[in-house]
């Protein structure tokens, strides 16, 4: 009898391969765990950004301050109505005489309310609108120039202003470029600080003390709507 010896087939493993495969599997497992967390954080970023931009409740709208320039600076015309704005002392005017560079110039209104122009010397400017002053300059220059075209622009409003002081973000003096109400003046000053008394905002006008209830105004109460008055030159808005 012949006996047959069976040798079982041996399986050989590469130790380095096993170690490498185990590390790769571990990395993939960790990546699968971290990936949902990363995606969740990315999805939350827009919401956080939006939350940072949301204005606090019951805060007035904030406006950019009007820019004031002086003679010699890089100027821009102010948004005054040339038919209604009354020129005052210390205002800065730009007189443009069409196609005449020698006559075109920027001038300050003197404390006596006058400006000085070549050929015609002193001219009364205080109390006139830019449109009216331009017409008077044109009439005066007709004696020296052929059909002059004159345009007057206000480049800085220094004769009319109001102040906002107290518990606001930007205390200061603001040019009264265009008509503005109390509510908008508070917005121009950056709104209220914490713990400001929003119910008893005072408007000091000479010897008068007027009151503006901001809280009632945003609720639309008629009395507070009537309190949101137009500011006048020299008024002071006081927030305690």
Compile the SSE list and pairings.
Layout (H helix, E strand, L loop, with lengths): L14 H39 L38 E6 L7 E4 L5 E4 L3 E4 L5 H12 L8 E7 L4 E6 L5 E4 L6 H7 L12 E5 L2 E5 L1 H5 L3 H6 L8 E4 L1
Share of helical residues = 25-40%
Class by alpha and beta content: alpha+beta
Domain module tally? 3
Largest sheet: number of strands, sense, barrel closure: 5 strands, mixed
Termini, distance in Å? 118 Å
Number of strands: 10
**CATH homologous superfamily annotation of the largest domain:** wza like domain
Determine the oligomeric state from the structure.
Answer: single chain
> Strand content of the residues, in percent?
15-25%
What's the arrangement of strands in the largest beta sheet? 7-6-10-8-9
What is the CATH top level name of the largest domain? Answer: Alpha Beta
Name the overall outline: elongated
How does CATH name the architecture of the largest domain?
2-Layer Sandwich
Number of helices: 5
What CATH calls the topology of the largest domain is wza like fold
Can you give a write-up of this model?
- It is a single chain.
- The protein has 240 residues and is α+β, with helices and mostly antiparallel strands.
- It folds into three domains: 13-50; 66-159, wza like domain (wza like fold), CATH 3.30.1950; 161-239, Outer membrane lipoprotein wza fold like (Roll), CATH 3.10.560.10.
- Helix content is 29%, strand content 20%.
- A hairpin with a 7-residue loop joins strand 1 and strand 2 (105-108).
- The protein is elongated, with a radius of gyration of 36 Å.
């Amino acid at each position: 009898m012949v006996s047959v010896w069976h040798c079982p087939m041996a399986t050989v493993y590469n130790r380095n391969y096993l170690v490498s495969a185990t590390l790769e599997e571990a990395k993939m497992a960790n990546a699968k765990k971290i990936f949902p967390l990363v995606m969740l954080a990315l999805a939350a970023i827009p919401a956080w950004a939006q939350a940072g931009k949301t204005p606090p409740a019951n805060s007035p709208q904030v406006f950019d301050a009007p820019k004031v320039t002086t003679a010699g600076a890089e100027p821009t015309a102010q948004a005054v109505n040339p038919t209604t704005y009354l020129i005052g002392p210390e205002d800065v005017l730009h007189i443009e005489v069409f196609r005449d560079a020698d006559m075109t110039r920027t001038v300050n209104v003197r404390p006596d309310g006058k400006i000085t122009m070549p050929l015609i010397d002193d001219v009364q400017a205080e109390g006139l609108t830019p449109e009216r002053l331009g017409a008077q300059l044109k009439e005066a220059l007709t004696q020296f120039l052929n059909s002059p075209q004159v345009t007057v622009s206000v480049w800085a409003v220094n004769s009319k202003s109001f102040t906002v002081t107290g518990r606001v973000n930007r205390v200061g003096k603001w040019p009264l470029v265009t008509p503005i109400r109390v509510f908008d003046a508070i917005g121009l000053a950056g709104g209220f600080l914490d713990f400001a008394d929003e119910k008893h905002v005072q408007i000091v006008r000479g010897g008068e003390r007027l009151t503006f209830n901001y809280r009632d105004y945003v609720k639309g109460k008629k009395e507070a709507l009537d309190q949101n008055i137009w500011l006048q030159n020299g008024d002071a808005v006081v927030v305690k």
